Amino acid sequence: MHPRALRLGASVAAALVVAAGVLTTSPASAAVGDDDPSGAASPNGLVVNEVESNGDDTDWVELRNTSSAAIDLSGYAFLDDDSSHEAYVLPAGSTIAAGGYFVIDQVSATAPGFDFGLGGADTARVYDPAGDLVLRYSWTAHAAVTYGRCPDGTGALVDTTASTKGAANDCSSPVRINEVESDGGTPGDWVELTNVGTTTVDLGGYVFRDSDDTHAYTIPNGTTVAPGGFTVLDEQDFGFGLGKADSARVFDPRGDVVDSYTWTAHAATTYGRNPDGTGAFAETSVPTKGAANRFAGVVTAEAWPGGPDERVLDDEDTFTGDLSGIDWTASGSGPTSGSAAGQLWAVQNGDGLLYHLVSDGEGGWAPSNAAGTELHYADGSGTPDAEGVTVTSDDPGAVYVSTERNNDVSSTSRPAVLRFATTDGSQSTLDATDEWNLAADFPGLGANAGLEGVTWVPDSWLTAHGFADEHTGAAYTPATYTGHGDGLFFVGVEGTASVYAYALMSDGAFQRVATIATPFSVVADVQFDPTLDALWVVCDDACSGRTALYEVADGAFAATNVYEAPSNADRTLANEGFAISGVCTGGSRATFYADDNDTDGFSLRTGTYPCDSSTPGDGGTPGDGGTPGDGGTPGDGGTPGDGGTPGDGGTPGDGGTPGDGGTTPTPTPGGGSTPAPGDTAPGGSTPGTGTSPSGAPVAPSESSLTEANRGTLTAPATARPGETITIAVGTRYAGQQVHVWMFSTPTLLGTATVAADGTVTATIPADAPAGEHRIVVTAEDGTVLGWTTITIDPVTGALAFTGAEGLGVGAVAAFLLLAAGAGVLVLRRRRGIPASE
Known about the structure:
The protein is mainly β. It has four helices and 56 strands. Helix 1 crosses helix 4. The protein is globular.
């Protein structure tokens, strides 16, 4: 991945983008540098028309010829913001027709192109054959889709609705039909709309029709749909029913069709897009009116169960950018400072540095080797593009690093795992003792698309969980791979967005043992978590910071949970590294994030994930997450029989006379477990009292909201539809699952795990009516934990996707001055950082 140093112009422009977001709700314009050519096009009519910097098979820049004559592009050169990269020179015969398109693409197995990537903060520069800069376009964050000119060829570059490589840009409305109920829903038929764009859309004046043109419903002014949000049109409002053979059509205020869907029979449930907003329609597993669609066998993204924040851990400018991989392990050898918190290993990809970090005991972390350890290949040469790092319990005197290439030969792919002999990173330089170059397994893999993350999983764990070997087609048998050590290495590959398990033999040979597909466009890191008996797969800003948990089922790793980023986290951070502590303290484990872009001068952040400190074995495998038993002696702290397998939290058989406990409880990530029907629930409550027979939470009754339980939680006094709020329930409930409701008509806002700080987050429905409501939090057994009032403000002033109007010249000028000043402050506060890959 490629971080980019921000220059003054980019900083100023970034502030202008923020200004646009604050003062208007127009599409997010990418920032431009202060030395851009003054015109939108070069004198010959050539323009940068669309940019893809992440999330596609390759990065690319599309040019358009706005003139009436063809343009010869032979000898033109393309470069990003890093002048140390070798510019890509367009071959002879490269031409762009009048009104046509030309794509400058990244190199691939089948086509030539530039051999560097485009980052979240980067620049596209185009030079003519004389070496003069003719086009320049800069941005400070990846587009949600692409940056493209709207109108095509002539307008400003904004976040487009769809990627249109080599074709006219998609500047259409981002409103989409997402789910349809045509057979007697609640309170009748309904159609759910979503927004695949990046700014809120005012639906006022949009028209909804079924297959009959005379059936038309004009959506009232003030009705909005937030980015990624949902707005429902009900039969009681549009006034006609939907048939078993019918259509749903949405038109914009100009009368143009925005989206439509036609069906020939009622769905057994509903028809919905998979995935939301962009996928094809299929029958859902259950109606999800106003919420994300659900399908059988598909894991739907859910809220992060830990704390809502990611806070900075490192001092400003501790790192120089490019911090990419990170791994947590218990303190065993080396410096003892911060040993209770464990230790961190991290790698920096551009200059191939290894860092050993320790806690200062006051909430911060810093390298014990401040300058970092320079990594080289076995012969002492080269600069490994260090992307991931891990340690293993069978080789405690070593650190393993995953790489994409040798940065000294940056155009050649070298996806490898390297071993370095060190216990504390105190050496100034280290040469690899071993290398496993996996290039033969990935023919055609791009030089910037290799091994992003690496982790190690013990053989004992894999065999105990019934892991299957895809190479042999049988149960995994460690003895099959002589000299591979006591575990397998799992690597995340950026270019394939997949994870692979390898046996790495002592003679340099290797064998792929498993292939694991992911729901992400990029795999940025992978981490084994022995506490959860699961594998974390991590995406960076290309997926807005989502993570996924994988568990072994029927011999293979399968996704069980996909999590959004913590609610208050910046989802544009290039968090390429992820690690999680094996120590459970106060109901939570620390999570760690490595920001490859060194945003605002900081590269290391932390959050929390809930845990049960009474569970034995928190801390994981020795050398890979801690010593077994860290986090509590078996039987310590837990109520006998409180949801674990016999012997997990109590003496076998504790919890009742044999036979009175029902079936074995099912473990759930985050600590504790869900009692099966008939089991005694934690705290002595009877399972089922807070859920319906189908398992859905049951809303508390009006009479259960009393003055006695009012005010025992806090929430904002006001909120707007679509806004995410933080509710303080109390630290005594940390780690417990709760249900969050909004009255008057009881509406379930979600089920969440209370964070270590006693808070949960919930999102106000986008169609929540204005006025006073009540926020209610209930326990799993239905007990009301507390409630408070909240006023939902009416949504006013939201603008349509076509952009904002009426921003006064004086306001623009004033904010330009403010933004310029902010840019200067940013430049002065941070030392210069050389751009690198």
